[in-house]
Design brief:
The protein is mostly helical. The chain has three helices and no strands. The model has no long low-confidence stretch (mean pLDDT about 85).
Length: about 130
């Protein structure tokens, strides 16, 4: 619009107009306060959500590490139980006099009375076993 196209409008001065202007200003102030409160609330909600999500993710990674550690320890426990079973069997064998005598003959070349021990070298055993 051009300068000639603008008209000056006279303002009616009455209590009703003032009340309407005051109500309009109050509504604008309320809207502005509402926007501030909502922006503050959403900012707080975003920070709280970030904190909760990050703590959940860190806890999930800790849980996964603990599960892996538990699995590894369970495997170690089963190996130790198997080793314990073998050791118990060896203890039972070592309480048997015949087994001890056989072991002594084998490892320390001991013999019973009137018994002759022949030692065959390991190389010959390997050659004969491969033929």
């Amino acid at each position: 619009m051009s300068a000639a196209g603008k008209r000056k409008i006279a303002k009616i001065e009455s209590t009703y107009v003032y009340q309407q202007e005051a109500a309009g200003l109050a509504a604008a102030r309320k809207r502005k306060l509402l926007l501030r409160r909502l922006s503050l609330f959403f900012t707080f909600a975003i920070f709280a959500s970030y904190f909760m999500i990050s703590s959940i993710l860190s806890q999930a990674s800790v849980i996964n590490e603990k599960k892996a550690q538990k699995k590894q320890l369970e495997k170690e426990l089963s190996d130790l139980k198997q080793q314990q079973t073998i050791l118990k069997e060896n203890i039972a064998k070592l309480n048997d006099d015949d087994y001890i005598a056989k072991l002594a003959r084998k490892n320390f070349f001991m013999s019973n009375q009137n018994e002759i021990i022949f030692h065959i070298p390991e190389k010959n055993k390997e050659k004969s076993s491969t033929k």
